[in-house]
Amino acid sequence: MKHFPLSYAAISDKEVGYSNPYAAIRKIPLGTIKPPSYYGGGEIPEEDIVYIKFDAFDTEDIERSAFNILILAASGDGKSKLAKLIWSVLHDANYYCLYIDPKTTNSGNAKIAGPNKFLPPLLKPKGIKLKHYLPMPATKDFNKQVHNFNLFSLDLNDLDERDMWMGLDFTSKGAMRMLKIISELNNKKLSLKHIENYLKLLHHQKDINSQTKSSIEDRLSELEYLRIFERTINKLDLMDDFKQGNSVCISYNSRDKHFMSFDVGEKIRRLVKSHHDENNPRINPVMVFLDDSSYYAKFFKKQDFNLAVSEIQNIGNNYRALGIFNCMMVQTLGIIDEDVAETYPIKIISPLFKNPESLHKINVPKEFIRMLQDSKKHLIQDEDKYLYEWTLVQGGNHVQFFPFMPPCNHFKRVYFPK
Ligand SMILES: Nc1ncnc2c1ncn2[C@@H]1O[C@H](COP(=O)(O)OP(=O)(O)OP(=O)(O)O)[C@@H](O)[C@H]1O
Ligand SMILES: [Mg+2]
Questions:
Q1: Whose CA is nearest to atom 29 of ligand 1?
Q2: Residue span of the structural domain in which 284 resides
Q3: What pTM does this model have?
Q4: Quick check: is 361 in a domain?
Q5: 151: enclosing H helix or E strand
Q6: Sign (positive/negative) of CA torsion 265, 267, 268, 269?
Q7: Per the structure, how many domains does the chain have?
Q8: In a mutational test of the pocket of ligand 1, which residue from 30, 80, 99, 353 has the highest number of ligand atoms less than 8 Å from its CB?
Q9: Neighbours of 25 (CB within 10 A)
């Protein structure tokens, strides 16, 4: 196995300037091949460390390799903890990191340093500089905690593609109509009220039939209830926060899953646009951490179109050269069929993953699937000691490892009620 520098002194001049040696050598240390107790707090030999590699942030578009990571696990076996380890390195490697947190606000726990226990050998406890946001629907019944977060709303004028309106469950026809109305109203301070009044006018002039009018009105009243277009609340400028050295977390507090799937898709779409910004193109790659993605990356009943699913599939199929990647954490394969799975060259699987048979369809070595089918026999899993033997599957190979703890905090609360 290849050896890599183990101290700052061994890192070449070009790489100096990173605060994190793993960012400099562009490798994320996932864990060790033997359980932590084996090392007894002493030195960990380099060849015992399992890594994943990544491109430098300033790699040319055309040379970028796909860097999508799929984490398959059960509930509570440490996927968010593992994601925080990956995030800690990528943040320091100048990747723009967006963490989607559908059910809790625990992603923000990463802002302070974690307890110093079984970290990668070259890391010290350290928090991640981050800004934490809630969209308006996530503030419901959360009054005492809201003061800890930044709020954001959306601007109607920014929804300038048909897909976006379809992502809010408008029909294709309704979505086209919304684009037309918004362009006709041409108002920088556009509100839902303006649109409702305009619909009435169009109906009066017989420019819209009653059925289309009322179907649009139904959707608009739901959007009003969700308060996502509140003009008094700022919109979220991801690039602004990223350029100031922040990672960004968005928590949805398990609220409205349709909105969640729209908003996640919308955020990814906006990152794509930022790459093409003529005046200020984005060059740094983006890693979108999709925690518990079964909340939003799936089709809901009677839903024809889901913006999150569409954009996540686009990350795999089309956005590599744009430097937009994702690290998806799921409990079942769900939307991940053979085609989508191919876009995840890195798969990290917990010994508790519930449905090993389903892995046959996503190109995981058969030998490992057999191990997972009888996982108690082949893979260590000790709940009392929080000890789980995970597997990294990459390019037809698999290797087992025991995860390191992230240098940032995972378990300790950082947000308190007023
Ligand atoms: N002090 C601790 N040190 C190490 N591991 C712990 C500690 N306390 C709890 N754990 C383990 O960490 C797990 C939680 O880790 P994490 O939040 O990453 O899991 P998860 O897979 O994201 O869970 P969920 O499905 O709830 O989101 C606990 O279920 C437990 O096994
Ligand atoms: Mg979790």
A1: 76
A2: 8-153+233-403
A3: 0.94
A4: yes
A5: strand 150-152
A6: positive
A7: 2
A8: 80
A9: 22
